[in-house]
Amino acid sequence: MAISKSKIAVGLLVGGILTVVFGTVLVFVGPIIIDDQIAKNVEINPKNEMSYTMWKDIPVPFFMSVYFFNVLNPQEILNGEKPMVEQRGPYVYSEKRWKDNITFHENYTVSYKEYRQYHFERDMSVGDESDVVTIPNMLVLGAAIMMEKLPYPVRMIISASFKAFKETAFLTKPVGELMWGYDSKLVDFLNNYFPGMLPSTGKFGLFAEFNNSNTGLFTVNTGQDDIRKVHKVDSWNGLKKVDYWRTEQCNMINGTAGQMWPPFMTPESTLPFYSPDACRSMELVYQRPGSVGGVPVYRFVAPTTLFANGTDYAPNEGFCPCRQSGLLNVSSCRQKSPVFISHPHFFNADPFLLSTVLGLSPNEDDHGLFIDIHPETGVPMNVSVRLQLNLYMKAVSGITETGKISEVVMPMIWFGESGYIDGPILKTFHTNLVVMPAMMEYMQYIFISLGLATILGAVILKTQDKRRTQSSTNLTEKQDQMDDINEPKASSSGSERQAEKYVINDSEKPM
């Protein structure tokens, strides 16, 4: 039995309305579903096998590029002239990071130690680790500042010990030894008679304490109870705050451990993190949107106030005693050694610092610090953290090795730690975080458009059926009218024929 077009139109109308409703619901429910899936996948949970493995054993290739400021005029510096340096590098090291001693707690936190290991990459470097450079001798010039307030006779004894061990104000050694340590009788002497003065009891090197080491015991939130807290530091080495600085605010341990942040960021968000190497919390600010391999990102950079002194930025007063803006005095957490951190080439620093050293040329592209982060997940896609180590040095009476050195913050080395997501991981990110949400968004409007088209088709079909029915009705009515008109004529003709018959019959009768 054929189905009437009217019933088909009703069916299409109902189906169209339901399709529009479904598409409209997707418009509002779709983002909620996506956000819920993101929240479940970014929390630190062993059940999330892929994301947990990425958090535990970071699969992203990390590299540390090191640049030395080779001193060109060491003797002239001792005579009071302005230092002149040339940048030598990069010397590139691949960096492997992994977490160990992982312990989950009942309060939705997890403790771990993150280890790091470096391997020299000759093909990516400008030269070999055997290349020789000249830099300030921290053992001599650093110790001179640390001993400056001791009695004059003690300073003379210190100077005599430098001479005995043949230590001078400037050190010329291979890159590898300066990085990872070299044997020194002076180091042995200082460790024996001034324990705690040096950061390590073995070989002395700028990064000797970094290789095959960990950054301390971090306890962070898993986000299982509140996704807004995921990765945020609960404590570091059991501490809720440090005691290196002069104010409670500066001693606070804020933000994350610097690897991931809570999801659902906006341009108003910031990236706070605690850095054990800098002994303080830092915060990056939003700069601009961008993309990495087709994945949308927000770029966060260091604000100009990050290393500003207390005069230029009052909240930083707690990090003082300060010198010019652009320097962070880390002596309070580095055995009182006069070491300062800055951006490379004194980028974003007080111009006075540039005027005291020849050979520096700062620019944002080469020396700026940034993190490109996917705002929906809080996962960094491209990272470049660049910092410079500087030594405050000057002539100290009684220590003849310092000569007539003018007071200066001397660049020694700068390094950039960089990492980026690529390959299969980037493809997975692009598929799950760009393609799938886009498909869901398209599906929303496809359902709405299809539903509206179906409703329109139902209306057209119903209209056509109504017109066809009306036309058929009109035709039937006209036929009935014609039949009504033709019926009397037929009756009249019959009467006439009957009458005629009677007449004929009458005429045939005999007279």
Automatic annotation (TrEMBL):
GO function term, MF aspect, one: scavenger receptor activity
GO annotation, cellular component aspect: caveola; cytoplasm
UniProt-annotated stretches for the region Disordered: 467-511
Transmembrane segments: 12-34, 442-461
Gene Ontology biological process: cholesterol efflux; cholesterol import; plasma lipoprotein particle clearance; recognition of apoptotic cell; regulation of developmental pigmentation; regulation of fertilization
Transmembrane helix in keyword set: yes
Compartment annotation: Cell membrane; Membrane, Caveola
Annotated keywords: Cell membrane, Disulfide bond, Glycoprotein, Membrane, Receptor, Transmembrane, Transmembrane helix
Keyword Transmembrane helix appears in the UniProt entry: yes
UniProt-listed PANTHER family: SCAVENGER RECEPTOR CLASS B MEMBER 1 (PTHR11923:SF110), SCAVENGER RECEPTOR CLASS B TYPE-1 SR-B1 (PTHR11923)
Family: Belongs to the CD36 family.
Protein's UniProt name: Scavenger receptor class B member 1
Source organism of the structure: Clupea harengus
